[in-house]
C-alpha cells in the first residue's frame, strides 16, 4: 500500500486547525498567567481634578484615584459612549472627614495604552464625556448630575474598583 497525499484543500484545513489550536493555547496561557483581581488603571491628575472641580459646597481635596473599565453598562445606558470606567477616589471633605467616592465616566476618548493613566481628551460636557456619581459620598460631596448611566454599588465593576490600590 502506498502513502496517501493530502489534497490542497485538506492541507489548508489542517493548517487552519493547527493555527486555531495554537491560538487557543496562547489565550489560555495568558489567562492563567494573568494576576487575580481586576485590571486597575491609574487616573490622570487632570481627570481627578476635573471630578473634584464640581463640589456641592466647599472644595474637596482628592487623595488618590483608581479606575476599572466597565464592559456591561453600555448596553443598559440610554445614551451610549464608546467606553465606561468606574472611578474610585479617596478625598477629604470640607468637614475634614475622609471619604471614598465612586463615579462612572462615559467617554468617547481612546482607551488608555498599556500602563497609561485613564484620561479624557476633551471637556466633560455630556457630549464627548460625562461623569455621574454612583455612591452616596460622590452624590453628597460633588455636584455631578446623575440620571443616565444605570450603575449601582452591586455592579461587578463597582465591586472591582474597590479592590484597586
Keywords:
165 residues; alpha+beta; 2 domains; 5 strands; 22% strand; elongated
Q: What can you see in these coordinates?
A:
By secondary structure, this protein is α+β, with helices and mostly antiparallel strands. The protein has two domains: 7-36; 41-161, no CATH class. The protein is 28% helix and 22% strand. The chain is built from four helices and five strands. The chain has helices at residues 8-33, 45-52, 136-141, 156-161; strands at residues 41-42, 61-70, 83-92, 98-107, 129-133. Strands 1-2-3-4-5 form a five-stranded antiparallel sheet. The longest helix has 26 residues, at 8-33. The model has no long low-confidence stretch (mean pLDDT 86).
